[in-house]
């Protein structure tokens, strides 16, 4: 049975107060299972980034519980949250943020070396990921020598390097043309299935969202299932 890797329970998040109060999430509930890819599609300003930041423990809710691989995070202090985030969450952004002076392989190995792996172990894992994502022939290229779709697949490999159980992506194909977006999304999907991570992907691209296992949206501060 697939386990719930990411669970949000009655999560409430607002910003500001008084006449500047912005209610973003009110009793938001969401469960993402191991090996499941959930697309989050909602209008600009609806709270997609907020939901991702909360899920990635970069922000805290005012109330409610966020559980990552069974660990309740509401009682954790800053250190506990940081530790849990580093060991369980991988983040993919719209811009790849790869280090320009390092090769694709080195970019993917770097977070593993920081986590204490040997160079050899890290490089084996990096090559495995580049293979899954279809960019192994680009291992020794620097980011400037890669296409946009290749750069983004390397960024996905880097996010997955330390085997996170939860992968969060904010518009990961936002900068790519439709054909390349398809390629990158499919590569991400293959990775999620192979590694059994749980993925929550915010996207404006309806065609891509339809390829996810499930689509959710934000309405009145709630997470609701969505058919496109
Ligand atoms: N730090 C903050 N302080 C005050 N308001 C905030 C803050 N962060 C977000 N907001 C507000 O919360 C709402 C949700 O923002 P969020 O960035 O989550 O939306 P989004 O759906 O990701 O939008 P987009 O698609 O445009 O990126 C917006 O109205 C935004 O102005």
Number of strands: 10
What is the rounded Rg? 17 Å
Second rung of CATH, namely the architecture: 3-Layer(aba) Sandwich
Level-1 CATH class name: Alpha Beta
Q: What name does CATH use for the topology?
A: Rossmann fold
Overall, the morphology is: globular
Distance between the termini: 28 Å
What is the average per-residue confidence, as pLDDT, rounded to a whole number? 95
Main β-sheet: number of strands, strand sense, barrel status?
6 strands, mixed
Tally of separate helices: 7
Domain ABC transporter: 6-228
Organism: Devosia rhodophyticola
GO molecular function, one term: ATP binding
Keywords: ATP-binding, Nucleotide-binding, Translocase, Transport
Explain what this protein looks like in three dimensions.
The structure is a single chain. The two termini are 28 Å apart. Helix 3 (104-114) crosses helix 4 and helix 5 packs parallel to helix 6. The chain has a single domain, classed as P-loop containing nucleotide triphosphate hydrolases (Rossmann fold, 3-Layer(aba) Sandwich), CATH 3.40.50.300. It has 7 helices and 10 strands. The strands form 2 sheets. It has a 6-stranded mixed β-sheet, with helices on both faces. Strand 7, helix 6 (178-195) and strand 8 (198-202) form a beta-alpha-beta unit. The protein is 35% helix and 26% strand.
């Amino acid at each position: 049975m697939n386990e719930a890797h990411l669970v949000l329970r009655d999560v409430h998040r607002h910003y500001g107060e008084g006449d500047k109060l912005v209610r973003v999430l009110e009793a938001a509930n969401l469960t993402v299972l191991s090996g499941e890819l959930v697309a989050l599609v909602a209008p600009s300003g609806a709270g997609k980034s907020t939901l991702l930041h909360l899920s990635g423990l970069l922000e805290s809710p005012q109330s409610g519980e966020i559980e990552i691989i069974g660990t309740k995070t509401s009682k954790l202090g800053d250190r506990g949250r940081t530790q849990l985030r580093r060991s369980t969450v991988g983040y993919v952004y719209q811009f790849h943020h790869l280090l320009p002076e390092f090769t694709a392989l080195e970019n993917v190995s770097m977070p593993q070396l920081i986590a204490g792996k040997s160079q050899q172990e890290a490089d084996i894992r990096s090559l495995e990921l580049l293979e899954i994502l279809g960019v192994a022939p680009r291992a020794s290229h620097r980011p400037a020598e890669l296409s946009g779709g290749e750069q983004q697949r390397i960024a996905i490999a880097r996010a997955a390097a330390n085997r996170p159980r939860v992968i969060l992506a904010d518009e990961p194909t936002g900068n790519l043309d439709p054909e390349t977006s398809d390629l990158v999304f499919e590569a991400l999907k293959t990775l999620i299935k192979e590694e059994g991570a749980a993925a929550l992907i915010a996207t404006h691209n309806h065609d891509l969202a339809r390829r996810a296992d499930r689509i959710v949206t934000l309405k009145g501060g709630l997470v609701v299932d969505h058919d496109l």
